Amino acid sequence: METTTSKNNKDRIFVDVAILIMTFLMVGTSEIFHNREIIFPEIAAITIGSIFLPNMFWETDKIRILIYITLCAVLGVLIVLFCPGSHIVKLIFAFFLAQVIFILSGTSFAPMISAMVLPILLQTTSKAYLISAISFTALALVIRIIFEKTGYRQKETFEKIKRGPLDFRDLFVRVVIGAVLIILAIKSGLKFMMAPPLLVAFTELTNRETAPRKHPFKVILLMFLCALTGSLLRFIIHMRLNLPLTLAAVLAMGIFLFFFRKIKIYLPPAGAITILSFLIPEKFVLYYPIHVLIGISILMASALIFFRSKNQKEPA
C-alpha cells in the first residue's frame, strides 16, 4: 500500500516535471522559430496556479481561464495597433481595462492582466504572441485535466464571485497606483519596475485574505530571487556561453521551484517573473532584478497601506 510520504514525493515529481516540460516546450518553440514573442511568461503562473497545490490557486474554472487570456491578449495587441496616445497612455489604459474585465469576470484570475499589458510594454503586434498565449494556456489546462483524471488534483468547483462597492473602490485605487508606477517606470528608464507579472502580483496582494501579504519581506525576496536567477542564467548560459536559451530557462524554473518550496510563499506570478527574464531585450538583462526589486517593494507597500483590513491589523 502506498504511504502518504511516497504519494507526496510522487506528486511533487509529477508537478515539477509538468512545469519544466511546459517551459521546455514554450521556450524551445521560440528558439526553433527564432521568435522571442512566442514566450508568454504567464504560462508559468497559469501552470503553477493550476497544479502546484491540490486546489486551483484562483477562484475560476478552466473555460474562463482560456476565455479571459484570449480576450485580454487580443485586446492588448489591438491597443498597440490602433489606440492613439503615447506609450504611457496605452499602458495605463490597458491596465485600467484589464482591471475592469477582472472585476466583471466574477473570478480572481489576475493573470489576464498580464496578457493585456505585456504586448503593449514590449510593443508586440505579432500573431505568434496570440497563438502562443492561447495554445499554451490550453495545454496548461489539459495538464490540469490529466492531473484531475489521475487523482493527483481535485476537480475544481467554481462559484462566480459577487462584487460589491469595496471591490470597485479597490479597482480605482489599484488603477491609480498602477498608473503612478507606470509613469515612474517609463520616465526613469526602469521600465520593468512595472513588469506585467508584478501588476498581477499586486492585484492578488490587494486581496485582504490572501496569505502572502502576511509575509511581505518573503514576497519581495521571492520575486527578487526569481528575477536574479532568470537574468543570471540567461546572461551566463545563453549570452556568454552561447548555449540554448531553453537550457537556461529550464534550469531557472528548476531553481524557482526550489525557492517556491523553501520560502513557502505561494504566489504564481513569481514563476512568470522568472520566465520574463528570457523575453526582455538583452540590454536590460543584468538590470532586470533591480527593476523587479524596486517594483515589488513599491507594490507590496502599497497593498499593505491602501488595502488594509478594517478588522485586522496588518503584520509588520
Write a brief caption for the model:
The chain is mainly alpha-helical and 316 residues long. The chain has helices at residues 4-32, 42-51, 62-82, 87-104, 111-121, 127-149, 165-188, 196-205, 216-240, 245-263, 269-276, 288-306.
How would you characterize this protein structure?
46% of the residues are buried. The model has no long low-confidence stretch (mean pLDDT 93). Helix content is 69%, strand content 0%. The protein has 12 helices and no strands. It has helices spanning 4-32, 42-51, 62-82, 87-104, 111-121, 127-149, 165-188, 196-205, 216-240, 245-263, 269-276, 288-306. By secondary structure, the protein is mostly helical.
Shape: globular
How many beta-strand elements?
0
The helix/strand order is HHHHHHHHHHHH
Give Rg in angstroms.
18 Å
* Share in β-strands: under 5%
- Portion of residues in helices? 55-70%
* Uncertain segments: none
Largest sheet: none
Number of helices: 12
Mean pLDDT, all residues: 93
Our measurement of the CA-to-CA distance between the termini, rounded to an integer number of angstroms, reads 46 Å
Task: Name the structural class.
Answer: mainly alpha
Question: Which helices and strands appear, and what pairs or packs with what?
Answer:
Blueprint: H1 4-32, H2 42-51, H3 62-82, H4 87-104, H5 111-121, H6 127-149, H7 165-188, H8 196-205, H9 216-240, H10 245-263, H11 269-276, H12 288-306
Helix pairs in contact: 1-2, 1-10, 2-6, 2-11, 3-4, 3-5, 3-6, 4-5, 4-7, 5-8, 7-12, 8-11, 8-12, 9-10, 9-11, 9-12, 10-11
Observed structural traits:
globular, 69% helix, 316 residues, single chain, 12 helices, mainly alpha
